[in-house]
Amino acid sequence: MVPGRQVVSEKNDKAKKALLTALVANGAGEIFELDGYAALGMAGSLLAPLTVGQTRNLPHGSELMYLPDRNPLLLNTKTGKLETLQENPYEPGEVIFPVAAFNSPGYVITRISAYRETQTSQPLPLFSYGAVGWHKKGFRSAVVLVDPETRQDLRRMPRADVIAGVDRMRLQMPNNRLRAHLDHCALTYGCPAGKNFFLGRYEAPLPTSKQCNARCLGCLSLQQHSGIHHSQDRITFTPSPEEIAEVALAHIKRVDKSVVSFGQGCEGDPLLAAHVIEPAIRQIRSQTGRGTINMNTNGSLPDRLRPLLDAGLDSIRISINSVREACYDAYFRPQGYALADVLASIEIALARKKHVAINYLNCPGFSDTEGEADALAGFLQQFPIHMIQWRNLNFDPLRYWKQMDAVASSGEPMGMEILLQQIGGQFPGLKFGYFNPPKENFKII
Ligand code: SF4
Questions:
Q1: What pTM was estimated for this model as a whole?
Q2: Which of 212, 328, 360 to mutate to test the pocket of ligand 1 (most atoms within 8 A of CB)?
Q3: 177 and 239 in contact (C-beta within 8 Å)?
Q4: Is 278 in the pocket of ligand 1 (CB under 6 A)?
Q5: How far are the Cα atoms of 190, 217, 230, 412 from residue 225, in angstroms, in the given order?
Q6: Which of 9, 259, 289, 371 has the greatest number of C-beta atoms within 10 Å?
Q7: Sign of CA dihedral 220, 224, 226, 227
Q8: What separation in Å is there between the alpha carbon of 343 and the centre of ligand 1?
Q9: Per residue in 125-180, pLDDT tens?
Q10: 165-212 pLDDT, tens per residue?
């Protein structure tokens, strides 16, 4: 052992174990650090202080939020005790709230910001609530990176360029209602997928479906009687095959390694619009073999998926929160289909040598439990899919844990980092990521 090296490694070890200072917010929404208190992260039954080694600098583009009607749960570093604070200990009478991070795409959260509900707590809006703290003049976030691609990096989407792209497409296809819908998505909602279409890059969205046959707890486009606001309005019309093909071809013809995707946040499930999608795919493929035609779907209707794959759909990404039926049903609340149909869709696509990914809606404290990890591994053994897109579940975490606990016992969480390592080690050919890959990057055996 070289003595100097030992000193350096001990120093590094100490630095990694350093605790993050807690962040809280006041009623005006001002976020500040609370000296003498360390930030805590929670994952189901696990509760632990955040350290430098378990966190990284808050990814660019992430947003900090404060959680109304909730109290921050912190570690008092002088007493070593956990405390639930209602007011600022240094400013008596000043009410304080927990702070969480909504992290940029490509980062998987490993801990939820620790808090306790009050008697008046309403369900949280549809975001994920990652744990966050402060260390040496910077915010740090409890995340791991699974996809470094800058596809949705807002720094690369100047508004002036998006507007120029919108103007260009208005001239190119003035009467196309789908193009007009995407104008609104890009300019009003600031949808990154919509912006990329007008910027002529990566993946273009092709929303089509007004309806869905699931009732997901965290559906972004429709909430009924839940007390939660959906964040995007559903498309109100069904575009014609010609309108879909015109938008898709405009993107494919000008973008290298392009992807065009059915199944967006502003629609229901695209399998319910298969009657327009199938002829649209045939029109696209009659003009070009270029570009990847992808569908993001709940995979509920294998008989409707089959002809789409045969018409030229290159890849599917199936949304799933759990492969255990009770947990799947409790979140997706399927109407007239079952998890077995979703699995049949996966089998059909694999048999046709199509690229298959799952959109794995993960939440620390549930997804990283033993029960879930074993079920996921069993599923991957049976269905050799090509990719897991790890997506932080945008839903109130305490309410999600409660819903899942009510239908299945899952065991103790092992930590999302360990889950990722375990699954990655067991299935070395399986790709981890966040974005739909172009077919040039497929590895299908
Ligand atoms: S499958 Fe998609 S569109 Fe349908 S309810 Fe779930 S999130 Fe909403």
A1: 0.94
A2: 212
A3: yes
A4: no
A5: 27, 11, 11, 32
A6: 259
A7: positive
A8: 17
A9: 999 999 999 999 899 999 999 999 888 888 888 899 999 999 999 999 999 999 99
A10: 999 999 999 999 999 999 999 999 889 999 999 999 999 999 999 999
